[in-house]
Amino acid sequence: MSFIDEAKFYVKGGDGGNGCVSFRREKYVPKGGPNGGDGGHGGAVILMASKDLNSLLDFRYRSHFKAERGGNGQGKDMHGRNGKDCYIDVPVGSFVKDGETGEILADLTEDGETLLVAEGGKGGLGNVHFASSTNRAPRVATKGKRDIPGLVEGASQGVGLGHTFLRHIERTTILLHVLDASDIHCVPNFKLIMAELEKYNTQLLQRNLVVVLNKCDLIDKSRIAHLHNYFSSLNVQSVAISALRRQNIEQLKDVIDNLMEESDEMEPA
Q: Which keywords, in A-to-Z order, does the entry hold (predicted)?
């Protein structure tokens, strides 16, 4: 005789810690450079098969699991510590599925076998990363990140992670649309994303918006100019980069830096 045991539970990776805004303070150097440390990465949630378990009874008493948040960065280039991973023991032979999509994730058949089910968020960057030739004293750092999946068509009606994803977006002040500039569907993909945002909440279209045209090293200059002209006609700022070759990364940093400073100035004291 065999028994089938089933349990549904919720997992969340730890948020990344915030980056720090700080400057060197030395006796004879009144205006030292930036030295804000990065935030630590959030912990992950990991399932581990254990031969010491033979049922899922424990999940009746605990159904939510969250990994530890990363520590905030500090001055003197001190980075926040990484959050601790959250390990969840399950019986050997456990069959794991995504509760929302029904996708089969794994069949844990060996003792000690693991499965990453929620990745931790990346730590925010300290202000040392935002120094540039035009801004040697940046007063900006980024907040820790959450592991947010991509937006899909129909998200405004709940498709995929739907409203869960869009609620994360509502907490942001700046939206960066990273598009594959070498994809012929680059513009249609942008239109799809904007349409989903508008259907969910029209106020999201009022946020600071920057389109990041990635993989610009794979297309010719006329194509880049055409894309810039298109987004300019929509009053949308665009920056062409190559993440692989590190092209125009400093320009993108300056754009983000300026937008964040504008956002800080608009917030009530």
A: GTP-binding, Nucleotide-binding, Ribosome biogenesis
